[in-house]
Specification:
The structure holds two protein chains of two kinds.
Chain A lengths: L3 E10 L4 H11 L4 E8 L5 E10 L1 H13 L3 E8 H19 L1
Antiparallel strand pairs in A: 1-3, 1-4, 2-3
Chain B lengths: L1 H14 E3 H11 L4 E4 L6 H7 L7 E4 L3 H15 L3 E5 L3 H15 L4 E7 L15 H5 L5 E5 L5 H13 L5 E7 H5 L1 E3 L19 H13 L3 E5 L2 H4 L3 H11 L3 E3 L14 E4 L6 H7 L4 E5 L5 H4 L10 E6 L13 E4 L2 H11 L6 H23 L8 H11 L4 E5 L3 H9 L8 E2 L10 H11 L4 E7 H6 L4 H7 L4 E6 L4 H10 L14 H7 L3 E5 L5 H10 L4 E6 L23
Parallel strand pairs in B: 2-3, 2-4, 4-5, 5-7, 6-7, 9-10, 9-12, 10-11, 12-13, 13-14, 15-16, 15-17, 17-18, 18-20, 19-20
Antiparallel strand pairs in B: 1-8
Helix pairs in contact in B: 2-3, 2-7, 4-5, 4-18, 9-14, 11-14, 12-15, 16-17, 16-23
The chains are: A alpha+beta, B alpha/beta.
Chain lengths: ~100, ~575
């Protein structure tokens, strides 16, 4: 399998049942959610989901569109693992410079 | 000053109502004149409120909640309006689910209202409590649980808006009994939009220009059209586009009736039991132009061998359909009415004489090998196709054909002739047996001046046979045709072709349908031989009330052509 690790950022209205609507998208395709966290975003009333899954490039694009199709979802983005590492590195470099 | 104050007081007093009254009032505000449902404990306050509004909104008592959902679907599909159905909590709500799932996959606008146990009992396994929000979530476009009376007007306004806008679909509103009994100050406002939901994506004109460029360069372009044409009311725009560009066009099962069957550019139906030419030539065209269709697996066959030689343009309102099954070269995400209008301006006026001739040659082959024998059988055994053919010949153009699911459905789709849009109602995506009878009732109630003909098999008819009671009570003049082969014909056909004729659980020992239907006070007729067929159909069509016609057809007839599962569209078999 060509499955890779992807992270999804999903912004939704904060309302009962939205977590279920989001997770159904994965359940239906038998994709396991490796990790999930939900918190209020910078905008009041808007929740931010961070979801990590293993799947392939073609599937992650379709899943992102399916998430955005939900009436109460504002926006969904996906990032591949390489994108995530790049962000981590950038953060740690700044931290070292400030110590020196 | 004093007068004004009194007026305001009166107005305020008039608005004070119970949640149940607000449900009914909100439906009236949305223009609903007809709804289908079945009462029960948790929805009783709404039924009680309905009793006072019988002159404004008619409630049709079906004989099962599934019947209510399918009837609402039939109503919505025939009229283009939102279908409304209602049920109680627990089993009432779960019985709606098949209809809701059918509406979801076939993009039918429904508002389903369910009663729920009182809010303090939620989650306690109370009598007739079921988590209908959880159960319906995967098969609804949106759903919402109301636990306070004051939430009702907004919830219903939002439900209608979401059901009808964008790509339509079913919405469920679950209302606890205490919310129905509570009071509110009623103030109705139509819902106008929300930030998280784009109903009509803005048309990217550059995409239409790219599409037009590909179309103008193409040597063998081919248009595939689906229900999107009907849903966006773009029938005229679509016709103008194909007539100017001269491109042969084939429909999906749900696209039937979007373009008149006898249009010179209509080359038939796509898919597993569709026509020979459009399936074959899908793999020979140089440009596929898909409009309001979603490349269902029954249309594409094996995707790895689907139109690999062609460039693909996809017009759809739903971004998630783009590249879902077939990779597109140009995607136009917008309402078809808008995009087709601009496209027509940009395409060259053309004709494709040789290309169209290729379709005609293959159509002739199909006629010789399949259609001729199906419509004019050489044996004494009657065929399903000849019954449909006779209905075409004997009826006027104001027909709405409603089908169930199986062999008779494919025969009706293949051989019925359509003039007007929304004149074909069938369960396409979900393939729900039992859909036809209640959907036909809903269609007839929505379009009382149309002749509604329900075409069913003996299997599907028995799945919702109880709706004969609805026909009896409402005196709905639906014409019912059961093509009886004493088999679950489509499954039997597959057993014959792919399972060594091992007919496991497909033979049916049926009751005497004539006796049953007579019990409901409906005029009936059974035809066993060809000589009686024409007369019976004529009688049925002329009959003022409901009519039940049972035709005994060949037990082991098959539907051809056929694309075997997993094969390429071009490997479609004529026998």
């Amino acid at each position: 399998m060509n499955d890779k690790r992807f992270k999804l950022s999903v912004f939704t209205e904060n309302m009962p049942g939205i977590l279920n609507r989001v997770t159904i998208i994965f359940t239906r395709r038998k994709i396991n959610i490796e990790s999930l966290s939900v918190q209020e975003s910078e905008v009041k009333g808007v929740s931010k989901f961070k979801i990590v899954i293993h799947t392939n490039e073609a599937q992650i694009i379709k899943i992102t569109k399916q998430l955005e199709k939900q009436v109460d979802v504002l926006k969904a983005y996906y990032h591949s693992e390489s994108d995530m590492l790049l962000q981590d590195l950038a953060v740690s470099k700044i931290a070292q410079n400030s110590i020196n | 000053m004093e007068t004004l104050e009194i007026k305001n007081k009166t107005k305020t007093k008039q608005r004070l109502m119970t949640g149940a009254q607000a449900v009914v009032q909100s439906l009236i505000e949305e223009g609903a004149k007809l709804m289908f449902g079945y009462p029960g404990g948790a929805i009783m306050p709404v039924y009680d409120a309905l009793y006072d509004f019988e002159d404004k909104i008619e409630h049709v008592l079906t004989r099962h909640e599934q019947g209510a959902a399918h009837a609402a679907q039939g109503y919505a599909r025939a009229t283009g309006k939102v279908g409304v159905c209602m049920a109680t909590s627990g089993p009432g709500a779960t019985n709606l689910i098949t209809g809701i799932a059918d509406a979801q996959i076939d993009s039918t606008p429904l508002v389903c209202i369910t009663g729920q146990v009182a809010s303090h009992l939620l989650g306690t396994d109370a009598f007739q409590e079921t988590d209908v929000i959880g159960i319906s979530m995967p098969v609804t476009k949106w759903n919402f649980q109301v636990t306070k009376a004051e939430e009702i007007p907004m919830a219903i306004a939002k439900a209608f808006y979401i059901a009808k806008s964008g790509k339509p679909g079913p919405v469920l509103i679950d209302i606890t009994k205490d919310a129905q009994l509570g009071e509110l100050d009623f103030d109705y406002k139509r819902f106008t939009g929300m930030r998280s939901y784009v109903t009509n994506p803005e048309l990217d004109k550059s995409k239409v220009e790219q599409a037009a460029e590909l179309i103008n360069q193409a040597k063998k372009p081919f248009v595939l059209f689906g229900q999107g044409i009907i849903l966006s009311e773009a029938e005229q725009e679509f016709k103008a586009f194909i007539e100017k560009s001269g491109i042969p066009s084939a429909c999906t099962i749900l696209g039937l009736s979007a373009l008149p069957s006898d249009h010179y550019l209509h080359v038939g139906m796509l898919g597993m039991h569709g026509n020979y030419a459009p399936n074959k030539l899908t793999n020979e065209c140089d440009l596929l132009i898909a409009v309001g269709m979603r490349f269902d697996d029954r249309v594409t066959g094996d995707l790895a061998q689907y139109a690999k030689q062609a460039k693909v343009i996809h017009f759809d309102i739903d971004p998630s359909e783009i590249d879902k099954n077939v990779k597109t070269d140009v995607a136009v995400i917008a309402d078809a009415k808008e995009s087709l209008k601009l496209l027509t301006e940009l395409v060259d006026t053309k004709t494709y004489k040789d290309w169209l001739h290729q379709f005609k040659l293959l159509a002739r082959e199909e006629y010789k090998e399949v259609i001729n024998e199906e419509l004019n059988p050489s044996t004494e055994i009657m065929s399903m196709g000849e019954v449909i053919h006779q209905i075409n010949e004997l009826s006027d153009e104001n027909n709405i054909i409603v089908t169930d699911v199986g062999q008779h459905q494919m025969m009706a789709c293949r051989y019925a002739k359509f003039k007007e849009t929304r004149s074909m109602i069938t369960s396409g995506g979900l393939g729900t047996m039992g859909f036809c009878l209640p959907a036909a009732i809903g269609a007839k109630m929505g379009k009382p001046n149309s002749q509604v003909i329900a075409i069913m098999g003996d299997g599907g008819f028995q799945m919702t046979i109880q709706e004969l009671g609805t026909i009896l009570q409402c005196k709905t003049p639906v014409k019912m045709v059961v093509l009886n082969n004493e088999f679950l014909g489509m499954v039997r056909q597959w057993q014959e072709l792919f399972f060594d004729k091992r007919y496991a659980s497909t033979h049916m020992i049926n009751p005497d349908f004539q006796t049953i239907v007579k019990g409901y006070g409906i005029t009936t007729k059974k035809v066993n031989q060809r000589n009686d067929l024409q007369g019976a159909i004529t009688d049925m069509l002329a009959h003022e009330g409901s009519y039940f016609l049972e035709v005994m057809v060949g037990k082991e007839n098959n539907v051809f052509p056929m694309i075997p599962t997993g094969s390429a569209v071009s490997d479609i078999r004529l026998k």
